[in-house]
Amino acid sequence: MKPLKRSVSLVIESPAGVLLVRRPDDDDSLPGLWGLPAASLREGESEREALLRVGRDKLGVEVEPLEPIGEDEAERDDHRIQMRDWSARMAAGVPAVPQRGEGTQYVEWRWGDPAELAPAARAGSVCARVLLRALGSSW
Question: Under the phi-then-psi rule, with left for phi > 0, alpha for psi from -120 to 50, and beta for the rest, what region is 124?
Answer without folding.
Answer: left
